[in-house]
Amino acid sequence: MELEDFIASFSGKIEEPIGRKIVYFKYLFHEVNGVSEPVFAWMKTDDGIWHRFFMDVWIPYWEALNPEQALKYAKDAHEDSIEAHIKEEFKEYIDDEGGQWKVVDILELYNVHNKEILNVEVTYKKENDPTFAQLKLLIEEDVEILINDFCDITETELIINNNKIT
User: Fold this and answer.
1) Domain count along the chain
2) SS3 (DSSP) at 138
């Protein structure tokens, strides 16, 4: 597949959360040797939909789960509820290699509770040298969340209102 075809197949809007208000939003990070990288997020919107998303090797992954789908997702992971599954996924600990797994509560830190999601879009950019994929969430009151994935050239980064989150 040519780069242009790859980019065309993954670029564009992610419609599911647009126009909805955020009621839950946490991001899991993995820190090794002082380098912290965002792994994935869980976000719930006011329509009861759970959104699990991340970027990996320039590819956006976005799951939108209604309550029935969320329960099945949890049951498949041997949990009784999606909340129990998320709690298990967001367990903070230090792994065998010394990496620290930690959770950042975006809802609390950036005051986005009940704020409307205005846009979610994936674009591909080239700055300086590396091409990178960017997942951008625009939230009312000028909150901008960027997830930049550099395809293993360097660590993925989460930037909120021009501040890199670690």
Assistant:
1) 1
2) strand
User: How long a stretch of residues is the chain?
Assistant: 166
Domain housing 133: 3-160
- Residue 124 resides in a domain: yes
Q: How far apart are the first and last CA of the chain?
A: 34
In a domain? residue 165: no
And the tokens for 33? 């040797």
Taking the CB of residue 125, how many other CB atoms lie within 10 A of it? 10
Q: Is the pTM of this model over 0.90?
A: yes
Instruction: Write the CB contacts of 18 (distance below 8 Å, at least 6 apart in sequence).
Output: 117, 118, 119, 120
Find the angle CA(7)-CA(12)-CA(14) to the nearest 5 degrees. 130
Interval 82-94: pLDDT, tens = 999 999 999 999 9
